[in-house]
Amino acid sequence: MAEAPTTPPATPAFQKLVAKLREVFQIDQPDLDFGIYRIINARAAEIGDYLQNKLRAKVDASLATGQQAGLADLQRDLAAAEQQARDLGADPATLPKGKDLRARCAALSGGASEHRDAVFSHLLTFFSRYYDRGDFISQRRYKGDTYAIPYSGEEVVLHWANKDQYYTKSGENFSNYTFSLDDGRRVHFRLAAADTAKDDRKDTDLERRFRLITPRTVTRTGDDGEEIQEEQTPIVEVTVPTPAGSDAKPTTELVLWFEYVPLPKKGDTQDVLNTRARDAVFADAAVKARWLDLARRMPTEKNPQRTLLDKHLGDYTEKNKADYFIHKDLGVFLRRELDFYIKNEVMHLDDVQNAQAFADIEKSLRLIQCLRAIALDLVAFLAQLEDFQKKLWLKKKFVVEAHYCVTLDRILKIGDDVSDPEEKRRVVAERDWLVQQIAASTKQITAWIDLGLVKNSACEPVIETLLGRGDTVAERLRANPFLMVDTQWFSTEFKYRLLAQLHDLDAQCDGLLVHSENFQALRLLQERYRGEVKCTYIDPPYNTGDDSFAYKDRYQHASWLAMIGDRLRVFSPFLEKKGVIFASIDEIERNSLERALDAVFGRESRVEELIWAKNTNKNQSPTYSTNHEYVPVYAKDIKAAKADLAMFRESKPGYLEIIELVTRLNDTHPPISEIEEALRSLYKEHKTQVESDEPDEWRGIYNYNRAEYRDPYGKFISEEEAKKKKAKIWVWREVDTSLPQVKEDSQKPEFRDANDPAYRFYKPIHPITGKPCPAPKTGWRWPFLPLGKQKSCFDARSRQSNRVG
After folding, report:
1. Model pLDDT for residues 572-601, shown as the tens digit of each residue
2. Rounded alpha-carbon distances, angstroms, from residue 63 to 37, 57, 58, 265
3. Which pTM does this prediction carry?
4. Do residues 59 and 11 lie in contact, with contact meaning Cβ atoms separated by under 8 Å?
5. Over the Cα atoms of the chain, what is R_g?
6. Quick check: is 343 in a domain?
7. Nearest 10 degrees: Cα torsion 373, 379, 383, 385
8. Checking DSSP bridges between strand 405-407 and strand 484-486, what pairing results, if any?
């Protein structure tokens, strides 16, 4: 009876491959019980079985299929050669062809083991190139032509190590960390506080690290707005109740509370803080009594005394240095790179060219067939996991908390538009209740005091002449209608009763402040503000190494490019057609930012780069000091932006005052003489105020001293018909319409020839008097009719109702 074939023992090449794939598939941490690990652990057994058993079997089967087919062909050729030799009366064993075929059959029969290890080795090399602590990213190689860069023939293309990946670490990653002990009990690491740099002040001498908290009393606000004080200790044993009707016994869990705070760079390292946390946990009475499994040894070569708790403390505090990216299409990326790897690293063209026999090429092709088939299986598996994480990342997030800031005048007007007497009484009573709640809120009044808006808890005014007085807080509030009420200081009931009285809330909101990870916030708001934003200013992290931007080791600039590129792409739909974006940056990422803006908006949409001179006297550079930053400006549609003549121009001093005057007079349609007198009075008032100032900021505005009425299409309307036709006031100034003359003899003869189209001494008829208007001494600035490329002419300007003559 034939013995069943036995699986060959695992070779070192196979063991190394499995260890790497367990790391890549993230099943080397089966005790973790949170986030993506919970999903992976649900399939851990299936993945583990594939790696330990099915993977090797598939490699053997793939190699055997090609091997048997090739061996059968060789054996047929050998039999034919031997028969041919016998027919010729020769000894088959002595013929060169027979010897060669027998050698090839022997080599093919014994080559499976060699090919198997080669496949394992290539798989290990390939996946090691692209995986680094949770991310699929091209690793640095010192051999040329290691990777394939997608290129479609563009004149210039920008590429970086993690292109086509989402940067997911734009905010600190403080997810809860949970692991399970062998008996099923769970241990949680929780974050109690995460202090970050305030007001854009960078922690240049500090570095944020994790440490176990010290016992403290914390205050939080409940759903009803009431303050709740809680005692917080670093080590807490909690009992988890069982579901109703269950016979299971309640279980206990251990919670360790950490804080993430700025500490001196030269102070205790994270390893020292981890050791200190471990010692504190092991010294706890509850841990000594019931959680001794945390002290179980988990040795490594570097740390033979490492405990289970040490391992997880290291993993938890290391999280901020790993898992920076999620690939946008891992399957496409790895399949493309696999084909390039095989062509570049496995199927060497020189070996094909120099092969002595086709059998050598056949051996390589069989190895390539097997390698590609197995690698594609693994790639498909990995792509499923990465695509799942991508879906989670792109899933729109819930708004955890929302508050509103409402000025008192809006609250005090509640009920003013209600005509029904009964309804008005109800709404006014609601308004009075809201005002009383505000007047009684110590938190809100304290916030006003901190902001310098009121003097004390009685809401007495800071400046007596500006704020009205009253006997009660409520009366003083009514005299201060522009104080801002912030619903974060009030109960949930107050917030919703207030919002119920504010009709068309979205239209009344003057602004929106979002506290969120920026990519998720932009995705959430995209549809609401699509095409509505006219101007945007962004101040991204400068990536100095000392700022708050977290980057992957060795990928500082690639991490930054991945971060800014995706956020610009998500933001682009917010801009209206003529909208523009301003972005501050310094020399470190200036070029990267400009290329990212080019990729999103197009190089043709670049408006300009502004130079922002910094107010600094520092000059420590041995060459030239850098005392400026850069502000590149891009438009959504450069043509539309240029068409808006006010887009990039600052109003002249005095412009707003004149517009305010004209707006006020528009409703009454006064005579032109009255409008021009009002203009003169405004200028006179200004000149009296600033006659001591030099130079006069209003210079150039005084000339706009004439007025007339125009309809919405710009057509001239007489003052008698202005009110009837709802015309608007246009303010204008006279300009010199004569032809400039540099020298006495500089005029061309045709300018004085009445029969020439260029004649400049014509006498147009005045539209009101009907009499000819004499030409200026040097002639008119324009010909009477269009002439050649000169489109401007007297006739066109006259028909446009511009004042000439």
Report:
1. 999 999 999 999 999 999 999 999 999 999
2. 34, 10, 8, 56
3. 0.72
4. no
5. 40
6. yes
7. 110
8. antiparallel
